[in-house]
Amino acid sequence: MTGKQKVQVVVDKPTSYQTLYKKIDATSKTRFQASRRLIKHNKYSTLTIVLLSLGLILQALIDGYSLSENINKDFSSLVQVFSSIAVLVYSLLIAKNDYSGRSEKLYSCASALGELKLKVHPEVERNKQEEYLKASEKYQAVLDQFESHAVDNFQNDYTVAKLTMHEHYPINWAKRLFLNVKYRVLYALEFSPYVLVGLVQAYFIYQSI
User: Fold this and answer.
1) What is the pLDDT of residues 64-77, one digit of tens each?
2) Which intervals hold domain SMODS and SLOG-associating 2TM effector (predicted)?
3) How far apart are CA 100 and CA 40, in angstroms?
4) What is the domain partition of the chain in residue ranges?
């Protein structure tokens, strides 16, 4: 032989390009779902504060102008105390959890992973070791860049993402039904405090007039 023959190394099955592509796709969809969930938290938290504040103003007007002949002073005071504390608590929660900021960072992470996924997809069939290692390093770099801002429990978001990835996660109808019910119940429980606070305030106002 007069020259060196270049040998292309193909990655083995356990570390295949297909597995990496699947991982990037799942992580991207999970982050997008988490971003949407946090946006809802931010919206509902703000709406709750607005409604509580309006309830507080309404109760003050009812008391101040005697708009009801059967005002229950005890319940009226309870409404004002409850609303004031709830507004304070939700304001602190919004500031502490930073729903908007975390949602934006998760969206940026998901977008970066989405771009990487588009670059990786053409290489899946070639399955070359060199390109696989580069893509794997880029994937880890994206996670390292955003992961510190994305501390959250993604399990339910991952379940939602998995249900949309039919090509990667073939699930029979029974398990799919179970996962659908499970994630909806968990989401309902997660967002139930907003409804509960609104119902409690409405009950107190009703009892005070």
Assistant:
1) 766 566 666 767 77
2) 16-200
3) 9
4) 13-152+193-208
